[in-house]
Request: fold
Amino acid sequence: MASLIPVIPKTFRDRVVSPSLLAADFSCIGDEVSRAIHAGADWIHLDVMDGHFVDNISFGPAMVQTVHESNDIFLDVHLMISRPDHYLGRFIAAGSDLITVHVEAEHDVAETLRRIREGGCEAGLALNPATPLSAVEPYLDQIDLLLCMTVVPGFGGQAFMPEVLEKIKAAVKIRETNRLTYHVEVDGGIDAVTAARCFTAGANVMVAGSSTFRAPEMATAITHIRNA
Ligand code: DX5
Ligand code: ZN
Reply:
């Protein structure tokens, strides 16, 4: 397949739409990724679930590699797995551009973040809706992206949790006070309406599964989220 030029934002002020492959048609993944790219996706979000950290099993590094080999779009890999440190090397080798690990997982968070960057990827840190911001504060100078989950992770198609908006605002405030540079990403129940609330709170990266891949017109859906 011909290479496509990726659109990689340079600062956390740029708005990014990252459609989640979890909502795509798994019988034709390559075509689904192309459809998202042509519809204006900035990144592709890949939800890796191990059936232990979350109550669902999705796919592993082979899927990341398949998507990586089919085009040049920026791959936003979200590891919902208990031992990200154990599997990290395989996700780096598979062609991830950004790897996000959960602060709640069983690993040395600082060491995992260091290894992600050492492997040539951007480092993301995620926290669940119930996890306070204080849990990630020690690591905020070691990340390129903070993912504030807006649903309890595990499944697509869940309702957005508005109580996370205050955490997003606080994360942006800490970034500004300390002159840090991480993107703030939201994931779960994002559509044009909830994206508007998240942008207002200060998030700039919108992960959207159902509202993009399952929209009647994906390009329109992505445009509406970006311009929300
Ligand atoms: C949830 C995943 C999400 C999910 C979002 O555990 O991390 O990325 O695919 O799906 P929607 O946009 O349908 O809520
Ligand atoms: Zn995700």
The first helix runs from residue 29 to 38. The first strand starts at residue 16 and ends at 19. The pocket of zinc ion (ligand 2) is lined by residues 20, 45, 47, 78, 187, 207 (CB under 6 Å).
